[in-house]
Amino acid sequence: MTVNTLFDRADALLRRTLGRSTDGLAFAPGRVNLIGEHTDYNGGFVLPCAIQLGTGVAWAARDDDLVRVVRSDPQEDVAEFRLSDRLGAGPGTGRTGGPPWWAYVQGMMLAMRQAHGLSLGGLDIALAGDLPMGAGLSSSASLCVAVGQACAASAAFEMPRTHLALAAQRAENDFVGCRCGNMDQMASTHGQAGKALLIDCRALSVQPISMPPGLAILVVHSGVERGLVDSAYNERRASCDRAAALLGLGSLRDATTDLLADPRLDALALQRARHVVTENERVLAAAQALQTGDLRTLRECMAASHRSMRDDFAITVSAVDRLADLMHTAIGAEGGARMTGGGFGGCVVGLVPEDRLNALDQAVAAGYRDPHGSPPRRWRLRASTGVSLG
Ligand code: GLA
Q: Which of 91, 280, 326, 370 sits at 20 to 30 Å (Cα–Cα) from 122?
């Protein structure tokens, strides 16, 4: 779907279900991470790009403090609250029933008010999206950023992209209760067409890296839905904090290869820390390789990243390992494959020369079956622009 199609859908939905005509439109993309997993909340480096799939929002201002939100996929759901309701006493307070996306919308509106003292008025909002949920392509960050951009526009406020990203992260951290880092939100706000983004998650700096001409992105879903994601994710984050504390560091960003020999690290802390230290190195090497079109080095970085996620960080499952292996082999000498996103299921990303894309697609369709015995879902993605107004 194009962004304009999402806008048309959101606009029609707002009219049909809430009886309003649109005052403004906003779009925020999802992202695919090329390399750099679980490094963001350790203050490290990541290399994602925004993609052409995302969330479109149509909004209309109200003259009271009611917020009504409608979303049509998978089924049509309407939810509402008043801005004067007591919300956000702490993590999880957003889970007040309603459809699964509801806590994100409430959390984002609250984060926008807290971040900038925005005097938000009531809004009618319609959402239309084409991102698969729970696939590791950041449907939640896309939703939060799109709603945040709509809120800012409704208050005639031009919000800096990084501020918008951090507000969206806070919505998930403080309201939904997932202690995610800032990669997804930074990618969704800062995306550029044809570029990957080398993000320093501590400095909050973004360096666009041109994708080599003729390099395609294929994302394949293992079909393993990520179960218990939030708790396992939060547990990994806690184990990184613990490893940093054992080393007397504020964050694993400051750990080095030498420090990994420190006897204060027990076996588990060593594994977790080693993943973060080596993954940060691989992100920088992969960014350099992407910039120079060195697809062989990129291949090595992606393969080593996958092994590290499997053996040290323990966030892959056997179906994902099988799929990554199959893709790695089918891609050939130039380009590579690795699991992308938080882990425990989800997708594998392949970077492949355009002229081998169809062969890769066919190899995956023929050689992999999801847990239901079907060929896997696949997306051909493009590095795309970040959040925008319609
Ligand atoms: C999820 C989180 C991100 C990041 C990745 C793993 O997508 O939302 O902040 O930690 O997992 O790299």
A: 91
